[in-house]
Amino acid sequence: MSLTHLPASASPEEVTALIRKDGACIVDSVLSVAEMDLVATELEPYIAATKVGPDDFAGHNTRRTGGLVGRSPRCRDLVMHPLVLGTAGKLLGHSTSFQLHLTQVIAIGPGEPAQTIHRDQWAFDFFPFPKDYDVQCNTIWAMTDFTEENGATRVIPGSNHFEDRMEFTQADTIPAEMKKGSVLFYSGSVYHGGGANRSTMVRKGINITYNLSWLRQEENQYLAVPHDIARTLPVELLRLMGYARGAYALGYIDDLRDPIEVLRPDLKREGLGDLPNVGTRTLTPDSAPAASPGL
User: Fold this and answer.
1) CATH number at residue 192
2) What DSSP character marks residue 196?
3) Residue 295 pLDDT > 80, yes or no?
4) pLDDT band at 170 (very low <50, low <70, confident <90, very high)
5) Cα 37 vs. chain centroid, distance in angstroms?
6) DSSP H or E segment with residue 22
7) Do 84 and 11 touch, CB atoms closer than 8 A?
8) Structural domain of residue 172, as residue ranges?
9) Is this model's pTM higher than 0.85 or not?
10) Quick check: 45 and 24 in contact, CB under 8 A?
């Protein structure tokens, strides 16, 4: 039982196939160590100011720093990375559109015990989604090396095909070990959890996830990103953050107005969605939001 590693040159099709098969895979060295260090420099003041978690699941010695779109220009490039958006478009292509679900640095401190094994899609009030109906495409970017000793994310390969509400122990899992700058891709249905940090270093990863646009976002992007910053962002990123209608009519404001009109009146669109094609249109990397260049 192991996770497949792919090179940075991998295609969205290759990554998606592995996520559908195993629930997760790792793409090595998507960013260089130097590029990831630049990301870390932007984020470090916010991580240092973040309080540790309030309960066992969040981690009493783990800091979870969000609001990354508003705080870090380099994290915006991670959110819009072509490989990530291409993969999300394929994995979630059974729905009309997808959106940014959350952005969060997870910094697991020394001595933190292992997290309970879970499915991320349980956040939706434990709704029993049908098997093989993916509602999330998730990534963890390694800010530091991920090792078994320092708390690498634990995964049960193939568990995306298991029944819901199952319980597992750490012995059922394997560590998603990877080098700084690599990315763990995984579905919302795969059983996983943060590992125990038995080292003397802080294990840091950037968790950026996407979900179907008809589901609520875990991180409220409209409030997490101040409007004065949001107005300066590319329209493709704003749409991905949720300043767009989901499906036919979800998310409009007052008199059926396009939500992006709140920030950019010049970008408003008349009318609602494409009703004849709702439920039949599939996303492809070409129809996914345009991506900005990588770091």
Assistant:
1) 2.60.120.620
2) P
3) no
4) very high
5) 20
6) helix 12-22
7) no
8) 5-277
9) yes
10) no
Residue found under tokens 């004849």: 276
Q: At which residue do the structure tokens 């390969």 appear?
A: 157
Per the domain annotation, does 118 fall within a domain? yes
Assigned domain for 284 exists: no
85-117 pLDDT, tens digit per residue, is 999 999 999 999 999 999 999 999 999 999 999
User: When comparing pLDDT for 175 and 256, which is higher?
Assistant: 175
Q: Do the domain assignments include residue 255?
A: yes
Domains in the chain: how many in total? 1
Handedness of CA 122, 123, 127, 131 (dihedral sign): negative
What are the backbone angles phi and psi of residue 122, rounded to the nearest 5°? Answer: -65, -15
The continuous run of DSSP H or E covering 212 comes out as strand 203-212
* Cα–Cα nearest to 260, from 240, 243, 242, 241: 243
**Rounded Cα distance, 103 and 118, in Å:** 19
253: tokens are 């404001």
Assess if residue 19 is contained within a domain: yes
Contact of 38 with 74, CB cutoff 8 Å: yes
The tokens for 134 are 């993916």
